[in-house]
Structure formats: C-alpha cells, structure tokens
Amino acid sequence: MLVKVCGITDREQYSRLDSLGVNMLGLNFFHASPRYVAPGDPVTRLSGRASKVGIFVNPCVDRTLATIKACGLDYVQLHGVESVAFCRQMKKHTGVIKAFG
What is the number of domains present in the chain? Predict the structure, then answer.
C-alpha cells in the first residue's frame, strides 16, 4: 500500500508524517488553497524518506520547472486541465501524477 498525505504546511507535520513512514508528502502550490505554501517557504526545503510531491492547478511551464528545482520535488500532481504535452514535458524532469474528475 502507498500512503500519500497532502496539505503539509509546517516542519512539525512534515517530520512527524515522515517518521511514521508515509510514502509521499504533498506541498500545495495552488494559490487559492488554504494550505498553500510558497516555493520559498522553509517547509519546501525539508527532506526525509518520503517522496516530495508538489500539487499544482493549471500551472505555467516555467513556474513549475522552477518550483521542481527549488524544492527538490520528486513528483508533480496536476489537478487542472493540463495537456498531454504539458504532462510529457514535466515527465522529463520529475514524476507526474495526473488527477482526473
């Protein structure tokens, strides 16, 4: 079983969930979310055993690539109407999780 928790906003959450063996930790880069974190937020620089997932909604290529690099994202999770071409472009840089529905 794979366990992924999204909406991580602080160091304590990140560290606690990582120590519990969660497989993936999600950081929300969608501005309208109440759990939004900016790419420069200290929580985005934390690392551990869990894979780090960046959650995006209809992002632009440049911003997404910059965030992948700055935050060391293992995956992007896309929740908008991103094209197949966009997903393929992201796949060149990191893993891709595409949400539908």
Answer: 1
What count of other Cβ atoms lies within 10 Å of the Cβ of residue 5? 17
* 55 contacts 30 by C-beta, under 8 angstroms: yes
Region 3-24 average pLDDT: 97
- Radius of gyration of the chain from Cα atoms? 13
Please determine, for residue 78, whether its predicted confidence score (pLDDT) is greater than 90. Answer: yes
Nearest to 70 by CA among 96, 39, 42: 39
Q: Which amino acid is at 30?
A: F
Task: Determine the angle formed by the axes of helices 61-71 and 84-91, rounding to 10 degrees.
Answer: 30
Q: Which two tokens stand for residue 9?
A: 């906003």
For 57, counting Cβ atoms within 10 Å of its Cβ (0-12 exposed, 13-18 middle, 19+ buried), the class is: middle
Which residue has tokens 């990140």? Answer: 14
Per-residue pLDDT, 16:
98
Torsion 45-46-47-51 (CA) sign: negative
